[in-house]
Specification:
It comes from Natronoglomus mannanivorans. The protein is mainly alpha-helical. It is about 50% helix and about 10% strand. It has helices spanning about 15-20, 25-30, 50-70, 70-85, 95-105, 110-115, 120-125, 130-140, 140-150, 155-165, 175-180, 195-215, 220-235, 245-250, 255-265, 270-275, 295, 300-315, 345-350, 355-365, 375-385, 405-410; strands at about 1-5, 10-15, 185, 190, 280-285, 320-325, 335-340, 345, 365-370.
Length: about 400
């Protein structure tokens, strides 16, 4: 047994299979991966890692299993999956995940190959656990997979509180103790017991507030886009010194990538800018209603072509234009299930907050075009022409429409 002091959950007791997994290279690698990627360029104290987060998820999973009355082999499987749930993450967490997925077909929760052999597999098998079943739990499969990866998972409960703690913002604070205690299974579905609509809403509100202030802060988005662009150049170099391909990149940590970017000629300028926080500036920051639907739905190759066309129209090098198009607003937490008057109901059908938060999400959505400050004006006007943006006023829109609901409606 090992006891670890944690900044969020105080003391975490690690025992059994989790204790033996803790010191494997696969888990220890998570010490080198920042939980929030480029967000530390906005919030300097946001330097916590996927390793800390994995310990927190394991801790909450243990508490949930105790309240659910789950013991023995099944509890061991879930605890192992909780500790291992992020071992598939590439460097800088989600910042490069879409890029590596396009080349490998694998997201971070596809960990079958990482668990199938090596020290992790040996530890699991020593404890009588099948690596493929643990990998399935990480992917959210089956009854108990919902606890590791689902709308009410312990992963979400830990990262909201942990990210709020390390950034210093008050928005991610939730009553994770109550959330864990009120979980139950009904007909195989993980739900919150009767009387917990507000408990479920707290997850929704916390995520809705953390998105614009932390996860999608404009400077963090710019840094993420620059990092993505640099990493793509790194993979496109035909014979880089380290022979890095997408598979290799996906198994590196943040420090490995930083060194590789510094050592490779086509990426050295991006590396310098990221190292010195000399970020590109917003040339366009457009609301969703000003953007043609075809732009929002464009695939990666189309986005790259738009970047080339904008650069050509503006008369600047291709690397001076980055187009950042978020996906359409979504709110997976609204599908969380709660028991109301004996029936299982989706939160989106029960809570009037959901529609208001969806409206807020819609009004916060922005398309970004980024460039060095010296060419920002010509890049911005070129982007409006090439993308067909319907912008009459300033190219950088900071205004937000009001919520399409009132507090009176919540009181009804």
């Amino acid at each position: 047994m090992k006891i670890i002091k944690d900044s969020v959950h105080d003391h975490i007791t690690i025992d059994g299979v989790a204790r033996d997994l803790l010191d494997t290279p696969t888990v220890q690698r998570l010490r080198g991966i920042a939980q929030l990627g480029t967000v530390s360029l906005v919030y300097p104290s946001a330097n916590h890692t996927r390793f800390e987060h994995s310990l927190g998820v394991y801790h909450l999973a243990c508490e949930a299993l105790e309240h659910l009355g789950v013991e023995g082999r099944q509890a061991d499987r879930v605890q192992a999956a909780a500790l291992l749930h992020d071992v598939g993450h590439g460097p800088f967490s989600h910042n490069l995940e879409d890029m590596t997925y396009r080349r490998t077909g694998r997201y971070h929760d596809d960990v079958d190959d990482l668990l199938a052999s090596g020290q992790v597999a040996a530890v699991l098998e020593e404890h009588g656990l099948e690596p493929e079943r643990v990998a399935g739990l990480v992917a959210g499969e089956g009854r108990f997979g919902q606890l590791v990866s689902g709308e009410l998972d312990v992963d979400r409960m830990d990262y909201l509180v942990r990210d709020a703690h390390h950034t210093g913002v008050p928005y991610g604070t939730i009553d994770h103790g109550r959330l864990v205690r009120e979980l139950t299974f009904v007909d195989g579905e993980l739900v919150l017991r009767e009387g917990n609509v507000q408990t479920a809403e707290s997850l929704l509100v916390a995520r809705a507030l953390m998105n614009p202030t932390v996860y999608n802060h404009s400077a963090a988005r710019i840094a993420k886009a620059m990092l993505r662009c640099a990493a793509e150049h790194l993979l496109e170099v035909e014979s880089n010194e380290d022979e890095i391909d997408a598979e290799t990149l996906q198994r590196m940590d943040d420090h490995d990538v930083i060194v590789a970017l510094r050592r490779t000629d086509p990426t050295r300028e991006f590396s310098r800018r990221l190292d010195h926080r000399d970020l590109y500036k917003r040339a366009v920051w457009a609301e969703i209603d000003d953007v043609p639907g075809g732009i929002i739905e464009a695939d990666h190759e189309s986005i790259r072509e738009f970047e080339r066309e904008i650069a050509d129209d503006a008369g600047v090098p291709e690397d001076s234009v980055i187009l950042d198009v978020p996906g359409r607003p979504s709110m997976t937490e609204s599908t969380s299930r709660v028991v109301v008057n004996g029936d299982i109901r989706r939160l989106g059908h029960q809570s009037p907050l959901v529609d208001a938060l969806r409206a807020a999400q819609y009004s916060q959505w922005r398309l970004g075009v980024y460039s060095p400050e010296t060419v920002r004006e010509q890049v911005g006007h070129a982007a409006v022409r090439i993308l067909g943006l319907d912008i009459d006023g300033p190219l950088i829109s900071e205004t937000r429409d009001g919520l399409y609901a009132t507090l009176d409606q919540f009181a009804e």
